[in-house]
């Protein structure tokens, strides 16, 4: 699939935001002691 430059940049921005939020979530999960099986959708 061909992506235009702006769409590719937007996708990279979304991915970087998601990975940052994922790291925050993993830190939060470690802090609160939540179990992985409580979050099957992530």
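^ Assign residues to that structure.
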């Amino acid at each position: 699939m061909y992506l235009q430059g702006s769409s590719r940049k937007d996708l990279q921005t979304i991915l970087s935001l998601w990975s940052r939020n994922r790291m925050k979530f993993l830190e939060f999960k470690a802090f609160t002691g939540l179990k992985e099986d409580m979050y099957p959708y992530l």
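The chain has a mean pLDDT of 72.
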